[in-house]
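Title: Prediction job returns without error message
Component: structure pipeline
Severity: low
Priority: P3
Assignee: unassigned

Description:
Job completed but the reporter wants confirmation the result is attached to the right record. Sequence as submitted:
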Amino acid sequence: MKIVIILPTYNERENIRKMIPLLQQEILPTIKNHQVSLLIVDDTSPDGTADEVKAFMHKWHTIKLLSGTKQGLGAAYVRGMQYAMKEMQADAVMEFDADFQHDPYDIPRLISAMDKGADCVIGSRYIAGGSIPKEWGFDRKFLSVVGNWVARVVWFNFTVHDVTSGFKLTKSSYLRKIDLDNLLSHTFAYKMQILHDILQLKAKVVEVPIVFKERGEGKSKISTSDQFESLYVVLRLGIYDHKRFFKFLVTGGTGFFLQMVTTAVSIQLGAEQFIAAMIGGEVAILSNFLINNTWTFGDTKHIKEQGHFFNRLIKFNVASLASIFTQGGVVYLAVNFLGSHQYLFGYDVPTSLIILVPTIILIIIPMNYFIYNYIIWKTQHLKNN
């Protein structure tokens, strides 16, 4: 397999002077059964980084230099990836910083993980055996850890522990499927979008623990604007991925409000609490059906395949009976065990209104989302092309 290690540089002359001999003399000779090359992507560094690389190119012919204008870390990596895949016929590319924050001795470990079947290997700081620099201040540690968690939560992906890592090895067959020319960020957030798209392609992603170090020479180039841009990229990708689910939540919120009002009115009119909860549930289901049919799932192209509107409505009600009886059963048990009313925030509140909130959030919402996607609108689940 042809592997190209991409090292982006800007004023990294001192680091590259140490890094290239270390890679060529100590690291790469240990990697068997692969053809490994170095691609230094230099953004016309004024300190003469490119001249240093050219001197090494006379000694080692597996080194390539790609020069260009300074447009950001992401732009440099993308330029390198495209060159590696097109001009160097790379089967896999590795993102690797030249500043020694990534340990060169970890390179064979990532390649070994790909040899075992991974499509993308991440040098992970947030799994057992991995770590971030002790020298970092609390603010940077906080931003790194919390930022990583925000991305995982927004993307509903908890299989990958380090989504912000810049040390990765990825098969070219997956990178070619990503629109590298139109990434949302040209700076640090590029890595998050590429990983996001890799995960969307169902690639097998494996994490290898790494100890992330403080820079050897120079200073960190990440800025506050880069951090805000990363948050923007994470949120935009998350909303796009789950826009149907967000619509579903808005629809469910509307139905929830109508359910609470209907349940309260039914109780005032003398209905038993568990009967009132079931009536309120049916009102919410009718509301949810109408809004979901025209809005949440309205952007798909096979709605007619579901049959006549009223046939779908009947199917929707039958399929949703599970949620009605679930709510009624939970309320019935709660009233029998806890009593008909509870004293809450200075008010005497019916038990049904209190217990419905966690029941709907923890049970009904996930159950209904599954029913809507895979029973009622199953043939229109694919989006328009």
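Comment from assignee: result matches the submitted record. Residues 379-385 have pLDDT under 50 and may be disordered.
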